Inverse folding.
């Protein structure tokens, strides 16, 4: 790593406080008393802190909020803190419910993955995904782990904690993992089908990939068109393959065409009656014959009801 890159990975104590929610006074006191977070001196004499320590400090902050004493957690590694937050707090008052413990554990897990992004550890990150997938199953993995992780990456990028290269690295890891998983779930299926696509100009693929994982839990076989699909291709593919369900993912970013106009055009040009659902923050409200899905749990429940209403094949 060259000196310029090293400088890019260092931040001031004020920036560290902003990213972690821990005051500058507390950070200075911890460094003096516990030797962490460890600062580096610039030639000018100013202190700078490694940006990669942000996930660990956020985990410490969460542990302190849950009742742990600073002397027990400030020097801990991210892995130690993650394990600690899965246990009963060290204080007897204000007991933590199982739901709160699970939420804290998931937050700590996300911070461990963020550390993997800082260090560009794709093997570690993908292994973590696989372990959690096997532990909780596809639906809980998407809802409780992947959604908060993607939101955390977005917030980290907006705040300046994560660079563009960090964000691209994370997106590529998530993309490859989710693609492999929904394709495994989708293999050797027969019967009814689900057409998955995004609108022209869409640049965000992760919403559609997570939807594909959830859709793969049903009996439907996925036909995946992916990012930035021309309207004519969505319509022609639907008319040719006659899927029972057309699923679209629309993010909040700017689009080449108006999403409402696109949805109405698709609906009007389908030759066969096809149920259309759309999810994502960019989906318009209250469009006739367009089912808007708010979250992945709702999508899963909706699919279960939809599949029960389908005619039984002879």
């Amino acid at each position: 790593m060259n000196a310029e890159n090293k400088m890019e990975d260092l931040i001031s104590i004020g920036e560290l406080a902003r990213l972690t929610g821990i005051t500058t006074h507390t950070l200075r006191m911890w460094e003096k008393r516990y030797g962490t977070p460890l600062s580096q001196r610039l030639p000018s004499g100013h202190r700078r802190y490694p940006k990669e320590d942000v996930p660990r400090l956020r985990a410490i902050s969460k542990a302190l909020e849950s009742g742990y004493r600073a002397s027990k957690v400030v020097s801990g590694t991210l892995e130690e803190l993650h394990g600690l937050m899965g246990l009963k707090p060290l204080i007897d008052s204000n007991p933590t419910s199982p739901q709160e413990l699970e939420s804290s554990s998931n937050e700590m897990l996300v911070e461990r993955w963020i550390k993997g992004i800082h260090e560009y550890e794709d093997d570690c990150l993908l292994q973590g995904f696989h372990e959690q997938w096997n532990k909780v199953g596809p639906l809980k993995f998407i809802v409780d782990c992947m959604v908060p992780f993607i939101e955390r990456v977005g917030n980290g990028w907006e705040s300046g904690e994560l660079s563009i290269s960090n964000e691209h690295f994370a997106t590529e890891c998530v993309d490859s993992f989710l693609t492999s998983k929904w394709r495994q779930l989708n293999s050797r299926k027969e019967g009814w089908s689900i057409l998955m696509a995004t609108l022209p100009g869409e640049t965000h693929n992760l919403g559609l990939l997570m939807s594909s994982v959830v859709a793969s839990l049903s009996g439907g076989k996925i036909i995946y068109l992916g990012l930035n699909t021309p309207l004519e291709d969505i319509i022609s593919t639907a008319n040719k393959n006659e899927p029972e369900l057309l699923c679209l993912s629309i993010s909040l970013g700017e689009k080449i065409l108006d999403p409402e106009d696109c949805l109405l055009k698709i609906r009007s040009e389908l030759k066969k009656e096809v149920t259309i659902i759309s999810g994502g923050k960019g989906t318009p409200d209250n469009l006739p014959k367009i089912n808007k899905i708010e979250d992945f749990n709702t999508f899963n429940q909706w699919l279960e009801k939809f599949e029960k209403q389908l005619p039984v094949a002879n």
